[in-house]
C-alpha cells in the first residue's frame, strides 16, 4: 500500500514512527506491505535528516504528480493549502485520512460528498479528541444506536489551565504561560482559549451523532475570556469544578443544538476528575444510557495511532458510514441552574438585569469581588458572565465551606 504523507510535523512524524513500529502487524492485517512513498513539507532546510530514509519534498507539483498513492494522510493543518490538496486527491479517487479538525468542520460536508461520489473514504478519527477512538465508535459499533446528547471536554489546553487553577491556585494567565512553556499551548493560544478548537470538534461530533452538519452560525461559542478568578473560587467553594464543555443535543425533527461554553461540573459527574490535557466524551441515548470515554486528546503517539487505526478501520469497513438521525434529548425541556456573576461595581445594574427576565432566583452567594445569583431556567443569557451547571446540583443541599467568603443563600 503506497502512502502519501502531507506534513511532517508532530503528527506526520508520529505516523511514520507508528507505521515503522507495527509494520509486521499492519502487513498481516492489510495483506500487503505499507510504504511511505513521499512526504510533502514546507521548509526544506528543516528536513535534511529525513531525506536519508524518505522521499521528502517541498514541491507540490512533484508530490502530486507521483499520484499513484493508495491513501494520502493529511497532517498539515489549517484550511489552505490542506483543503486544496485534500480535494485534489479525493477527486482523483484517492482516499484521505485527516487529523485536521478545522478543515473537517468547515469543508467536511463538501469533501465527504466528493469521497462518496468516488466510492472512497475521507476519514478523520484523529481530528476529534486525538487518541480517543470516538469517530469510528460512532460510525462502527454505535452506527445504529440512537443518540440524544454528546458532551465533551475536547480541548486539552484549557482543561490543563483550569486544572492548574484548581489544584495550584494560580491564575488563568499564569497557567496559560505554563502550558505554553510545556508545549501544550501554541504561542498564539486564541483557538484554544476562545473555544474555537472545541467548536470545530463538537460540530464534527454533532454531524456523526445526528446525521447532518449544523449551521455554524447557530453553534454558540464561548471560551475562557469572561471567566475571572473569583468565579472559579466561588464555584469551588460550592463544590463545583469549572471546565470548558462542548455539548450537542438532538431536539427532534432534524434539529439539533450545540455549544461550547465554560460550565461548572457537579462532583458526581464523570468529568469532575478529568484533569490536565486529558479529554473526555459522554454519549447518551435510550439504549446505551451513558457511555463515557476518557483519554489523550492530543500528542504525537496517540494522534498518529488514531490515524493509522483509521486507515485499517476504513479499509475493512463496508457498511454505511453516517448515522441517519438522533433521538430527542430532554435538553429541549430541561431546566438547569445557571450562575450569573455580577462584580461589586455593577451591583445596582446587575440585580435589575437578573430580575428583569422573570428569572427564578434560587440562591445568592457573596464573594469579596461580587455576587453570584443562582437562576433556574432554560438557555439563560445575560450581559454579565453566565455559567451553566452540569450534573446534579441543588443549592438547597450545598454546604457552604467558608462562611466568611459566602455570606448567605436564599
Ligand atoms: N499535535 C497534536 O497533538 C495534534 C493532535 C490532533 C490533531 N492534530 C492536527 O494534526 C494536524 C497537524 O498538526 P501538527 O501538530 O503535526 O502540526 P505541525 O507540527 O505544525 O506540522 C505541520 C506540518 O505541515 C507542514 N506544512 C505546513 N504548511 C505547509 C504547506 N503549505 N505545504 C506543505 N507542508 C506544509 C509543515 O512543514 P515544515 O515541517 O516544513 O514546517 C509541517 O511538517 C493539524 O490539523 C492539527 O490540528 C494535531
From TrEMBL:
Keyword Amino-acid biosynthesis part of the UniProt annotation: yes
Pathways per UniProt:
Amino-acid biosynthesis; L-methionine biosynthesis via de novo pathway; L-homoserine from L-aspartate: step 3/3; Amino-acid biosynthesis; L-threonine biosynthesis; L-threonine from L-aspartate: step 3/5
Q: Which GO terms describe its biological process?
A: methionine biosynthetic process; threonine biosynthetic process
GO MF, one example: homoserine dehydrogenase activity
Which InterPro entries does UniProt cross-reference here? Asp/hSer_DH_NAD-bd, HDH_cat, HDH_CS, NAD(P)-bd_dom_sf
Q: Provide the E.C. number(s) assigned to this enzyme.
A: 1.1.1.3
First-tier enzyme category under EC: oxidoreductase
Give residue ranges for domain Homoserine dehydrogenase catalytic: 133-312
Which stretches make up the Aspartate/homoserine dehydrogenase NAD-binding domain?
Answer: 7-119
State the reactions this protein catalyses. Answer: L-homoserine + NADP(+) = L-aspartate 4-semialdehyde + NADPH + H(+)
User: Which keywords, in A-to-Z order, does the entry hold?
Assistant: Amino-acid biosynthesis, Methionine biosynthesis, NADP, Oxidoreductase, Sodium, Threonine biosynthesis
Q: Which family does it belong to?
A: Belongs to the homoserine dehydrogenase family.
Name the chain's protein: Homoserine dehydrogenase
- Species source reads Alkalihalobacillus trypoxylicola
Organism classification: Bacteria, Bacillati, Bacillota, Bacilli, Bacillales
Amino acid at each position: 500500500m503506497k502512502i502519501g504523507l502531507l506534513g511532517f510535523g508532530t503528527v506526520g512524524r508520529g505516523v511514520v514512527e507508528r507505521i515503522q513500529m507495527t509494520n509486521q502487524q499492519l502487513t498481516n492485517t492489510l495483506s500487503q506491505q505499507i510504504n511511505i512513498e513521499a512526504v510533502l513539507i514546507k521548509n526544506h532546510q528543516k528536513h535534511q535528516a529525513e531525506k536519508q530514509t524518505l522521499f521528502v519534498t517541498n514541491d507540490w507539483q512533484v508530490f502530486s504528480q507521483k499520484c499513484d498513492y493508495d491513501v494520502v494522510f493529511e497532517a498539515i493543518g489549517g484550511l489552505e493549502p490542506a483543503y486544496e490538496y485534500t480535494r485534489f486527491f479525493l477527486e482523483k479517487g484517492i482516499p484521505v485520512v485527516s487529523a485536521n479538525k478545522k478543515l473537517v468542520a468547515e469543508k467536511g460536508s463538501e469533501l465527504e460528498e466528493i469521497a462518496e461520489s468516488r466510492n472512497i473514504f475521507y476519514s478523520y478519527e484523529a481530528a476529534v479528541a486525538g487518541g480517543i477512538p470516538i469517530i469510528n465508535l460512532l460510525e462502527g459499533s454505535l452506527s445504529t444506536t440512537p443518540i440524544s446528547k454528546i458532551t465533551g471536554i475536547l480541548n486539552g489546553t484549557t482543561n490543563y489551565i483550569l486544572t492548574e487553577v484548581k489544584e495550584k491556585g494560580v491564575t488563568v494567565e499564569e497557567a496559560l504561560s505554563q502550558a505554553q512553556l510545556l508545549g501544550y499551548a501554541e504561542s498564539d493560544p486564541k483557538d484554544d482559549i476562545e473555544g474555537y478548537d472545541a467548536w470545530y470538534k463538537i460540530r464534527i461530533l454533532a454531524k456523526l451523532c445526528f446525521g447532518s452538519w449544523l449551521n455554524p452560525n447557530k453553534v454558540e461559542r464561548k471560551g475562557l475570556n469572561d471567566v475571572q478568578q473569583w468565579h472559579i473560587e466561588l464555584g469551588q467553594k460550592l463544590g463545583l469544578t469549572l471546565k470548558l464543555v462542548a455539548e450537542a443535543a438532538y431536539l427532534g425533527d432534524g434539529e439539533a443544538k450545540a455549544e461550547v461554553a465554560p460550565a461548572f461540573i457537579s462532583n458526581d459527574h464523570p468529568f469532575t476528575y478529568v484533569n490536565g490535557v486529558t479529554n473526555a466524551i459522554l454519549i447518551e441515548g435510550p439504549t446505551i444510557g451513558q457511555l463515557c470515554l476518557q483519554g489523550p486528546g492530543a500528542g504525537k503517539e496517540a494522534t498518529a495511532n488514531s490515524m493509522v487505526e483509521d486507515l485499517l478501520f476504513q479499509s475493512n469497513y463496508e457498511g454505511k458510514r453516517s448515522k441517519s438521525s438522533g433521538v430527542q434529548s430532554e435538553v429541549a425541556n430541561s431546566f438547569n441552574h445557571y450562575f450569573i456573576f455580577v462584580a461589586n461595581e455593577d451591583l445596582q445594574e446587575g440585580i435589575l438585569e437578573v430580575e428583569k427576565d422573570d428569572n427564578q432566583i434560587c440562591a445568592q452567594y457573596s464573594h469579596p469581588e461580587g455576587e453570584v445569583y443562582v437562576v433556574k431556567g432554560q438557555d439563560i443569557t445575560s450581559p454579565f458572565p453566565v455559567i451553566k451547571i452540569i450534573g446534579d446540583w441543588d443549592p438547597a443541599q450545598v454546604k457552604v465551606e467558608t462562611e466568611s467568603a459566602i455570606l448567605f443563600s436564599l
